[in-house]
Amino acid sequence: MFSWSTAGESHGPALIALMEGAPAGVRISSADISRALARRRQGHGRGARQKFERDELTVLSGIRHGKTIGSPIALEIGNSEWPKWRAVMSADPVDPSELTRDAGTGDPREIARNKPLTKPRPGHADLVGMNKYGFDDARPVLERASARETAARVALGAIAAAVNGQVAGVSVLSRVVRIGNVVDESAPPGPDAAEALDASPVRCLDPAVEAAMVAEIDEAKKDGDTLGGVVEVLVYGVPQGLGTYATPMGRLDARLAAAAMSIQSVKGVEIGDGFTGAGRRGSVAHDEIVREGALRRLTNRAGGIEGGMSNGEAIRIRLAFKPISTVPRALRTIDTATGEPATALHQRSDVTAVVPGAVVAEAMASLVVAQALIEKTGGDCADQMRESLAAYLASIPEARA
Ligand SMILES: Cc1cc2nc3c(=O)[nH]c(=O)nc-3n(C[C@H](O)[C@H](O)[C@H](O)COP(=O)(O)O)c2cc1C
Ligand SMILES: C=C(O[C@@H]1CC(C(=O)O)=C[C@@H](OP(=O)(O)O)[C@H]1O)C(=O)O
């Protein structure tokens, strides 16, 4: 059975990513995974941390000589900034004097780093996390709630994308279709747009909209504010029949939506024409089937999924990201140490999570599709999966995958 998980705190020594049930024989190298990690760090609107921190990847198991071997894959993503955080995030008890001493840099912020955080940020996990787990400091809450964890997901997503690509010819890409009030209304790009999207600082192919998005971010930053937006993920080449209507949580759309919603700060998910489709009449809401040699759909309003199964068209998902909650122009809160009104804690943060969020969303879609592909084709070994897929596709009466 295919499964994955992550561990690690934002300022701990490392993140850990674990994947079980990936097939043997999939080509993947640490360079491929590092490239995926680098894509997640990019984008206009990222905060200071992305500039100096590095993701230090070590493959601990499950890959040999550039190929998966069917055993659990364990990855470590070391945090290059760990020495600064050694005392505050130490697993073992530390002498209290350690927490009031700088790490040798002479920087007063070193000491601030170690102080209990008692001014929870509205919109972040701080306050409820402290109450739920019984902490008088938001540090242990924000350390794990932080989207730093998405680096581990992106590393796993690179493996999932390799499975999908090599077994079924699937490719995935993402673009940003809205930042704040700036909207890209262009039609979804084709599968060959991946490189051009990576080259844009806001993952947008229209130069005028791209410039407006960059300006929107710069303006919010200047105002001490933050922004949300909308990301679109497109998965091309997915064979029909992944996922199932037979069980509620077997549905591919349910799995993709849950995976998308699991990303920090995602507050809305749409498959295909989702919310727009809800306002249409049925006669213009679906994708008519015609014969042109093989069967063909005239449209893809469903976003590639019918009855909880992929239908052979491109899968199209949109994710709404809320604005970052660490707002420099800090919001009202209380100091949990005194009960008095305060302004929410703020040291540094991203202006918007939308651009890296798109790369994370690709990873989540790849993981869901890989799981469904492994289920459909009995995924011990990539070669056998390819044979199984070919036999299944050949069994479909209409000569169309
Ligand atoms: C890639 C990415 C980067 C993020 N960066 C920040 C950040 O710098 N500051 C912040 O307060 N929230 C950031 N967030 C969002 C928080 O992690 C998120 O709001 C928090 O965990 C609470 O969860 P929720 O928004 O899903 O309710 C980021 C999210 C993503 C996906
Ligand atoms: C570290 C990453 O994102 C972090 C996600 C995050 C949050 O609250 O989600 C808060 C910020 O961390 P800090 O408060 O230490 O500056 C981001 O930098 C990353 O994406 O690698």
UniProtKB/TrEMBL annotation:
<dbReference type="GO" id="GO:0010181">
    <property type="term" value="F:FMN binding"/>
</dbReference>
<feature type="binding site">
    <location>
        <position position="46"/>
    </location>
    <ligand>
        <name>NADP(+)</name>
    </ligand>
</feature>
<dbReference type="GO" id="GO:0004107">
    <property type="term" value="F:chorismate synthase activity"/>
</dbReference>
<dbReference type="InterPro" id="IPR020541">
    <property type="entry name" value="Chorismate_synthase_CS"/>
</dbReference>
<comment type="pathway">
    <text>Metabolic intermediate biosynthesis; chorismate biosynthesis; chorismate from D-erythrose 4-phosphate and phosphoenolpyruvate: step 7/7.</text>
</comment>
<feature type="binding site">
    <location>
        <begin position="144"/>
        <end position="146"/>
    </location>
    <ligand>
        <name>FMN</name>
    </ligand>
</feature>
<dbReference type="Pfam" id="PF01264">
    <property type="entry name" value="Chorismate_synt"/>
</dbReference>
<dbReference type="InterPro" id="IPR000453">
    <property type="entry name" value="Chorismate_synth"/>
</dbReference>
<dbReference type="InterPro" id="IPR035904">
    <property type="entry name" value="Chorismate_synth_AroC_sf"/>
</dbReference>
<dbReference type="GO" id="GO:0005829">
    <property type="term" value="C:cytosol"/>
</dbReference>
<feature type="binding site">
    <location>
        <begin position="322"/>
        <end position="326"/>
    </location>
    <ligand>
        <name>FMN</name>
    </ligand>
</feature>
<comment type="similarity">
    <text>Belongs to the chorismate synthase family.</text>
</comment>
<comment type="subunit">
    <text>Homotetramer.</text>
</comment>
<keyword id="KW-0456">Lyase</keyword>
<keyword id="KW-0521">NADP</keyword>
<keyword id="KW-0274">FAD</keyword>
<feature type="binding site">
    <location>
        <position position="40"/>
    </location>
    <ligand>
        <name>NADP(+)</name>
    </ligand>
</feature>
<keyword id="KW-0057">Aromatic amino acid biosynthesis</keyword>
<keyword id="KW-0288">FMN</keyword>
<dbReference type="GO" id="GO:0008652">
    <property type="term" value="P:amino acid biosynthetic process"/>
</dbReference>
<protein>
    <recommendedName>
        <fullName>Chorismate synthase</fullName>
        <ecNumber>4.2.3.5</ecNumber>
    </recommendedName>
</protein>
<feature type="binding site">
    <location>
        <position position="307"/>
    </location>
    <ligand>
        <name>FMN</name>
    </ligand>
</feature>
<feature type="binding site">
    <location>
        <begin position="264"/>
        <end position="265"/>
    </location>
    <ligand>
        <name>FMN</name>
    </ligand>
</feature>
<keyword id="KW-0285">Flavoprotein</keyword>
<keyword id="KW-0028">Amino-acid biosynthesis</keyword>
<comment type="function">
    <text>This reaction introduces a second double bond into the aromatic ring system.</text>
</comment>
<dbReference type="GO" id="GO:0009423">
    <property type="term" value="P:chorismate biosynthetic process"/>
</dbReference>
<feature type="binding site">
    <location>
        <position position="348"/>
    </location>
    <ligand>
        <name>FMN</name>
    </ligand>
</feature>
<feature type="region of interest" description="Disordered">
    <location>
        <begin position="93"/>
        <end position="126"/>
    </location>
</feature>
<dbReference type="GO" id="GO:0009073">
    <property type="term" value="P:aromatic amino acid family biosynthetic process"/>
</dbReference>
